[in-house]
Amino acid sequence: MLVLLILHLVAALVAPLLVRWWGPRACYPLALAPAAAFGWAVARTPAVRDGGAVVEAYPWVPQLRLELALRLTTLSWLMTLLVGGVGALVLVYCARYFAAGSAGLARFAAVLVAFAGAMLGLVLADDLLLLYVFWELTTIFSYLLIGHSTTRRASRWAAAQALTVTTFGGLAMLVGFLMLGRHTGGYHWSELAGGGLPAGGYLVTAVLLVLAGALAKSAVLPFSGWLPQAMCAPTPVSAYLHAAAMVKAGVYLLGLLAPVLATAGPWRPVTVTAGLLTMLAGGWAALRQCDLKLLLAYGTVSQLGLLTVVLGAGTPKAALAGTAMLFAHALFKAALFLVVGAIDHSAGTRDLRELSGLGRRAPLLAAVGTLAAASMAGLPPLVGFVAKEAVLAAFTDQPVVLAGLVAGTVLTVAYTARFVWGAFGTRPHAERTEPQPVPAAMLGPPALLAVAGLAAGVLAGPAGALLRPYAELFGPVPEHLALWHGPTLALGLSVLALACGVALFALRGPLAPVLARVRAPVGGAQGYEWLTHRFDRLAIEVTSATQRGSLPLYLGTILLVLVVVPGGAMLAAGPWRQGVPLWDTPLQPVVGVVSAVAALLAVGARRRLTAMLLVGVTGYGTAMMFVLHGAPDLALTQFLVETATIAVFVLVLRRLPERFSARPLRRSRWARRAVGAAVGVVLAGLCLVAVGARTAPSVSRAFPDLAVSEGHGRNVVNVTLVDIRAWDTMGEISVLVVTATGVASLIFQRSRTGPRPRRPRRPERPAQRGPQRPVWLRGGPTLAERRRSIVFEVVTRLLFHTIVLFSLFLLFSGHNAPGGGFAGGLVASLALAVRYLAGGRYELAEAAPVGAGTVLGAGLAVSVGTGAFALLASGSVLQSAKLDLWLPGVGDFYVVTSLFFDIGVYLIVVGLVLDILRSLGAEVDRHIEAAGKTERGLIVDPQGRRP
Amino acid sequence: MNGSGATLVLVVLVGVLAGTGVTLLLERSLTRILLGVVLLGNGVNLLILLGGRSGDAPVVGTAPVDRMSDALPQAMVLTAIVITFGLTAFLLAVAYRSWYLTGNDEVQDDLEDRQVAELAARNELPARDLGGEGPDGDPEQVDPEPHLRRQHRGETP
């Protein structure tokens, strides 16, 4: 069975290629895939004839207890025959239906074969989850097939509607399956069926959900709106999906589950009510259609309602009748759709108001169509008659249902007569149709199906024997299928229905106003449109109620939640720390007061620069607190970062207005301050709670020993960064790389990887002043005269290399003393910043003649490379090792491999700052120059352009 | 100075920094928001640091191990400081970009959200995305128009 599924998959994959080579004729070889499924099912007939099963199972996702469990029993055998047989015939039909070079034919052929495969999987699946997977696959493929004409709006609309409705049903069904499987502990239907059912509301809910899926797929009310819409699809698709295969999936599921679930809760009331209503409404609607295809579509809806009633009933007689009806319907409806396609193809229309005299002009087509239609109307000796007899006989003990079924049959007879009359009759007013000859490949498939219907009718006895094992699941079967049971009630009702149906058709003229007036209050399309419209409206309302678009409002909401929920929990149960000292050293309150005052002043500051400097004070204050806490590494980093931050701030603030814009809303200020105060209090409280909540000794107690023994370093913080918790650092430097890229991409409107800015080769100014004047910084002369500071340039020139050397010292000594890659990188960055501030953007290019991206990339590569190398060498990522080395003149020394990781960190920090200087510094300078506002710029090229 | 880590002064400072930071965060000027982030960052860094005890510098050999301050929160805060720096630079770039494009660095209300709110007030839909493709609008639809209209034209078959 798996081989068949794979065959379909392969055929679907090669289909586009074949279509490219052979055009529509590629459908002939593609038909072999479903034909193989048909042949295989025929060959397995002996195995299932006595109620046996063919089983295959392959493990798939054992954690979900999901298996590729396939199982062929009578019902799935019947469906396999239909899916394979009709599929093969439809593909043969397609070979002539489509003209050579039709748009999208390659996709169509592939999807149709894939659909056949999915449908085969659906009917063979024993695992309910697997069934669901195939179920949704058929939904998706049917979406693609219905929407075949991608340029037509109606086609896209219909495809979307079918997708939405059936997916909705499918999801509901999945929940139902999960509920059933949860209860019994497995998803194999064959085991689940014997495992005992849940009870009460749980079962009712599960059954209703599964029914929703089945009814939506089979277009039974209230889900039937999508099927008539789906008639936009090419006719072969309608013949296959909407007659033989996909819409049958729903009733197949009913038939599969009925042996167990038919007695459960709402099953029977729902299937009988929905089915009967659908049968009557669909038949009634079919009576007023002028498009032959729509007429058949509504007829299909009606028949699906009938099948829902019969297969859902769950009695032996009904089960036998249901399978016969399923078989009969697939044969005659697929044949009729194919006939309509042929009419459309040869006459150029399928509107029965425009067709006339086709019966005489195309007698063979008319014969095939009439034969299939006779089966639909239930005329002997066709299989439709046998099935209808059996159905009526199965419900003789339920008069209400029986009456409904007879009424539905009357409608069926009437719309069948309308179909034959419309397609092949001669109308006096209409112009006589001049059909093109119908090719054999388009006549053969429907003829074969129609003749099969005749053969199955004549051979009703043996055919019924094959279906008996399914009916026996419900108990002993007293009936058998036959053309002649003697003068029974069912026969009488059949005759009555035929007579009434013919009468109804004969009265079509006088009845036309009634037909037009009595219709469903809401059509399928309108109902769906109304529903989706309401949904959109709901989304708009909800969005507008919850998303006001105001950032302060969002943040305020989040912060209030922080205050209320963790703050409330803290008040309720916080383990408060007892006996917190006022301060460790007397310096702490001094620094604390200064920082707090600066922070409070920063809130009220009106000038940007003032606010920034006040915030800087709190940063330095925090650094002092780090010192007092006993964290020299932190303090060093904080001091350096604070300085770098101020430098970067100044670069941007030179462009922004000096003062903050005056805010008109003064009322909200107090709200903001209240939120701020509340958050401050809660965080301070959380601080105390967090400190008091420790119940176990800190893991870091062991760090000093580990640092020496494993990390080979004495600075515990640095060893933590590059060894013990090196993964954290790895993540963090990746973030830095992303940040740097983000900054650059926000500022650069051109690629930043282009040639770096070059200092003008022949600066005019020094040339005027004479060459004897010493040049301290080569980029200096590019600055405007009043921006230059010779003292600054001289100091920069003298200090730059010393600072860089110091940064390297911090880097290398960081493993054993305060320092490390972060601190070293920041020092080197500050050196670069000084060069830029003293000499402008050309000086920056002189100082760092490489792209920031190169530095960042090199840093990341070195860090990752260290980790990867350790993985290769020791089998553990970022594992550090100590290398003992000797150099002449130096003597013995050792290198810890984590140093290389730290070098990567160093490079990334330098790259980050370099990128910031390039973006917020040099590139912003260029913007200023381009805007012609020279007074705010750090650098002014006197010529205003580069040579 | 081998203490528990948390002192009342530090706890209060955490509260003040966080409170002022949040107040600035709720502003509309990106510069102020950014300064708020920096203040909040300083406060939270201190908060994390207080998770470990204070003491001598955690450098083996300079002090007895049991008098050292806790190294783990320090390592965490160290990376946090540098990340805050990166975030500051990024937000500054955003502020600059905002100024470059609009002439100020104020965060405006989201335009789309405002449009949605207006639509809701008028009880309308945006573009009828699926609804706009209703079958009525298409001349090629199989069932081109309601049956009643055809009836009025006297086209009853």
From TrEMBL, chain A:
It is a multi-pass membrane protein. PANTHER family: NA(+)/H(+) ANTIPORTER SUBUNIT, NA(+)_H(+) ANTIPORTER SUBUNIT A. It comes from Micromonospora haikouensis. Residues 673-747 form the MrpA C-terminal/MbhE domain. The chain crosses the membrane at residues 68-93, 105-123, 129-146, 158-180, 200-227, 239-261, 267-287, 294-313, 319-343, 364-387, 399-421, 442-467, 487-507, 553-574, 586-604, 611-628, 634-653, 674-693, 729-748, 794-813, 819-838, 850-873, 893-917. Keywords: Antiport, Cell membrane, Ion transport, Membrane, Transmembrane, Transmembrane helix, Transport. NCBIfam families: PRK12644.1. One of its GO terms (molecular function) is antiporter activity. This is Multisubunit sodium/proton antiporter, MrpA subunit /multisubunit sodium/proton antiporter, MrpB subunit. Residues 125-411 form the NADH:quinone oxidoreductase/Mrp antiporter transmembrane domain. Residues 791-914 form the Na+/H+ antiporter MnhB subunit-related protein domain. Residues 753-762 have a biased composition (Basic residues). Residues 63-108 form the NADH-Ubiquinone oxidoreductase (complex I) chain 5 N-terminal domain. GO terms for cellular component: plasma membrane. Residues 594-658 form the MrpA C-terminal/MbhD domain. One of its GO terms (biological process) is monoatomic ion transport. Its main location: membrane. InterPro entries: CPA3_Na-H_Antiporter_A, MnhB, MrpA_C/MbhD, MrpA_C/MbhE, ND/Mrp_TM, Nuo/plastoQ_OxRdtase_6_NuoJ, Proton_antipo_N. Residues 750-778 are annotated as: Disordered. It is found in: Cell membrane; Membrane.
Automatic annotation (TrEMBL), chain B:
It is found in: Cell membrane. Residues 144-157 have a biased composition (Basic and acidic residues). One of its GO terms (cellular component) is plasma membrane. It holds the Pfam family Oxidored_q2. The keyword Transmembrane applies. It is a multi-pass membrane protein. Residues 122-157 are annotated as: Disordered. The chain crosses the membrane at residues 6-26, 33-51, 71-96. Keywords: Cell membrane, Membrane, Transmembrane, Transmembrane helix. Belongs to the CPA3 antiporters (TC 2.A.63) subunit C family. PANTHER family: ANTIPORTER SUBUNIT MNHC2-RELATED (PTHR34583). This is Multisubunit sodium/proton antiporter, MrpC subunit. It comes from Micromonospora haikouensis.
